[in-house]
Amino acid sequence: MQVELPDGKRLELPDGSTGAAVAQAIGPGLAKAALGTRVNGKLSDLQTTVPDGATIAIVTKRDGDAIALQRHTLAHVMAQAVREYFVEQGFSANSVRMGIGPVIENGFYYDFDLPRTLTPDDLEAIEARMRAIVAADLPLRKYELPRDAALERFVRLEDPYKTELIEDLQAGEAITFYEQGGESGFTDLCRGPHVPSTGAVTPHFKLMSVAGAYWRGDETRPMLQRIYGVAFTTREELDKHLWQIEEAKKRDHRKLGAELDIFILDDDVGPGLPLWLPRGGVMIDQIEKLAKDMEDAGGYQRVRSPHLSKESLFLKSGHLPYYEESMFPAMELDNGIRYFIKPMNCPFHHKIFDARPRSYRDLPLRLAEYGTCYRYEDSGALMGLMRVRSMQMTDAHTYCTEERFEVEFLKVIDMYVEYFRLFGIDDYVMRLSKHATEGLGKKYVDNQALWLKTEDMVRQAMISAGVPFVEEEDEAAFYGPKIDVQIRSAIGREFSLATNQVDFAVPDRMGLHYVGADNERKVPLVLHRAPLSTHERLIGFLIEHFAGDFPVWLAPEQVRVVPIADRHFGYANRLVERLAAAGLRGTVDEGGDRMNAKIRAAELYKVPYIVIVGDNEEAGDRVSFRSRQEPERKDVAVEAFVAHLADAAARRLLKPEPLAA
Ligand SMILES: [Zn+2]
Ligand SMILES: [Zn+2]
């Protein structure tokens, strides 16, 4: 047989050679470092025979793929450790049964049916046993059994789970097993791929938790215990991951949002309907001001629309029936006329477009609104500010000609990138969300030719702008494809924040048109965009991203003035007035606490600047400050301090520029 290497070289090998034999033929050094293979682009392992004529690459520790092999083998190592652990405690080996053990993001899991419930102490003991199995460096042997023999084996072992898995496989299909540590070690029904031995896994792993999981996700089936583990190539990656998990708990927007008095959820108001407290109100004002500044510069015009409308509007727009599941039920008014609360602003903007005759000279027309919408989410899906039932969004619709599409579309993409820069978001992925053929006529407007054409317009626009993106099927809006932007916070949490959608269907449905340069009646394209998502999701995200340490422009309270003694109250209040005159938000702590307690209180509130004023400051018209964003300073002229903060706020800097000495 012959194989081809990545550099195009061909190797002649005996028939039925494995990946290991290929590595050995290339060189003994590589054979030693090899962890797996990539055969015709697909991840495989050294234990597997290579088909004649295949292109094969050897995977070593340095390959990004290696970690997937290692995580999978760690799942097997964990399963062996769990079985040994229970046998050692006097349980029979057959009483430890197993479901499935796949690789997941950052790690692996395995589902167990065990004689008793696991505790955190058990996890520690199991992890220690895993390290012993890794140290023993047991080879993983792969072999095949005919389906009947495999079935017979698990029936004999009285293992209902593996028996069921084999029964689901096609008759005649070869069934593969991986065995480590011989017959007495551990053998699993498994497709692989795996590293060649237990010693080849990364040492940077950790068992994280145990949780209940129904067999095959079916709540009528037995509940198994799922042990989760994480594993990374380097110690640094593992440490970073563990840090992110700890930080995520501390930064949880529900916890910090309450501590910082930003929002509440109230039982009488209802689930998913947040109330913004004054501090949250300030943040919202600042974000709306930002959006307005950006949209003014981008040639948008602002409009307003009501919170509800007659059914006929949503029938025309297609929200009924395509979007009905996400809408609140109808209200009947005026002798049986049905009204709906709006889930989106678009139909109203379309009516505004249609309110006047439009010619090509009026286009592009960009209509913007900070609209409040309501969407029905199942109560089980609601989560803090991230999944809510009432939401406000910086929404806008651009009506343009097909020729103008690319320019307008890319202007929107540029706007996203500018927002991300302002918020210090440097980890994001743009995704072209496309339709799926099966969904046509149900989830998606039934016109495949238009779908394909519009998806290609978006694809070409992204390519010509050099913006990297990925494509995904079955994620589009009902009226057209969209660009979804997945962003990651400073602690690695992923959110889908912004979308930029192309609508080729609704304008036509609603009879929107303009008169072209050729005097012909034409249907405009509509771009829907909401680059800052909703206030709810954005602020939830920002709380976690900044851990409550908001940049000066966004901080609800920018300066807390702490007078050393009561006699400094007058000076402190005059200082706050001077800040206010420069558009800055400050308060004076006139409470009866001691100075240190006041400083502590301001720190807990994460006020970016704490200004301390006493006799010296008052005499010299100066301030001394502590800041969460720059080194502490003493005796700064008030004028310089105010100008310093006003500059950071006006330019919406993430951190103020250093204050000259
Ligand atoms: Zn496996
Ligand atoms: Zn819209």
Low-confidence stretches: none
Bound molecules: zinc ion
How does the helix and strand content classify structurally?
alpha+beta
**CATH topology of the largest domain, which one?**
BirA Bifunctional Protein, domain 2
Roughly how many Å apart are the termini?
76 Å
Mind telling me the CATH class of the largest domain?
Alpha Beta
User: If you compute it from the alpha carbons, what radius of gyration comes out, rounded to the nearest whole angstrom?
Assistant: 31 Å
How many individual domains?
Answer: 4
Strand content: 15-25%
Task: Using brief descriptors, characterize the structure shown.
661 residues, alpha+beta, Ubiquitin-like (UB roll), Threonyl-tRNA Synthetase, Chain A, domain 2, BirA Bifunctional Protein, domain 2, 4 domains, eight-stranded mixed beta sheet, five-stranded antiparallel beta sheet, binds zinc ion
Brief description of this entry?
The protein is α+β, with helices and mostly antiparallel strands and 661 residues long.
Topology overview:
Layout: E1 2-4, E2 10-12, H1 19-26, H2 28-33, E3 34-39, E4 42-44, E5 56-60, H3 66-88, E6 97-98, E7 103-104, E8 107-113, H4 120-135, E9 140-145, H5 147-156, H6 160-167, E10 175-180, E11 186-189, E12 205-214, E13 223-231, H7 235-251, H8 253-259, E14 263-264, E15 275-276, H9 278-297, E16 301-302, E17 308-310, H10 311-317, H11 319-322, E18 331-333, E19 337-341, H12 346-354, E20 365-374, E21 390-400, H13 405-422, E22 428-433, H14 448-465, E23 469-472, E24 482-488, E25 494-503, H15 506-509, E26 514-515, E27 521-522, E28 525-529, H16 535-546, E29 559-563, H17 569-581, E30 586-588, H18 595-604, E31 609-613, H19 615-620, E32 622-627, E33 633-637, H20 638-650
Parallel strand pairs: 16-20, 22-23, 29-30, 29-31
Antiparallel strand pairs: 1-2, 3-4, 3-5, 6-8, 7-8, 8-13, 9-10, 10-11, 12-13, 14-15, 17-19, 18-19, 20-21, 21-28, 22-24, 24-25, 25-28, 26-27, 31-32, 32-33
Helix pairs in contact: 3-4, 5-6, 8-16, 13-14
The site of one zinc ion (ZN) has 5 residues, from helix 3.
